Amino acid sequence: MIKILISPLIALLISQSIKVFLRLRKNKKLSKYHLNKAGGMPSGHAATVSALTLSLYLYQGFNPLFIVTLIFSLTVLRDTFLRRKEVRHKLSEILVGIILGIAISFLIYII
């Protein structure tokens, strides 16, 4: 059961770490601005909600909680997609976030 919580947290941690690494690599230094900047590759929102939804499905199956989580996740992904120009997200960043969340959920499920 704890893996349902661990998967999205690890997805968020890894997605944010990738962003910091890519910004550091691009700018050769890291500032508070770069740490607080919205958007970037991959989308942390997409990684987190996709990991949460898949983990819940893998461990508990298709039930009312899964349906609520799926609706919540689709709403977050929709908002992330529609507001991507405001928060500097590209479609590719959202898709990579989803793939990352799915991959992490499967890896934790297998372990």
Give the strand content.
under 5%
Helical fraction = over 70%
Number of separate strands: 0
Q: What gap, in angstroms, lies between the N and C termini?
A: 13 Å
* Helix and strand run: HHHHH
Counting DSSP H or I runs of 4 or more residues, the number of helices is 5
Note poorly predicted spans.
none
Please tell me the overall pLDDT.
Answer: 88
The profile of the biggest β sheet is: none
Radius of gyration, rounded?
14 Å
Descriptive labels:
single chain; 111 residues; mainly alpha; 78% helix; 0% strand
Short description:
This protein is mostly helical and 111 residues long. The protein contains five helices and no strands.
Notes on the protein architecture:
With 111 residues, this protein is mainly α. The protein has one domain. The protein is built from five helices and no strands. Helix 1 packs antiparallel against helix 3, helix 1 packs across helix 5 and helix 3 runs parallel beside helix 5. It is globular. The relative contact order is 0.21.
Topology:
Blueprint: H1 2-27, H2 32-36, H3 44-60, H4 64-82, H5 91-110
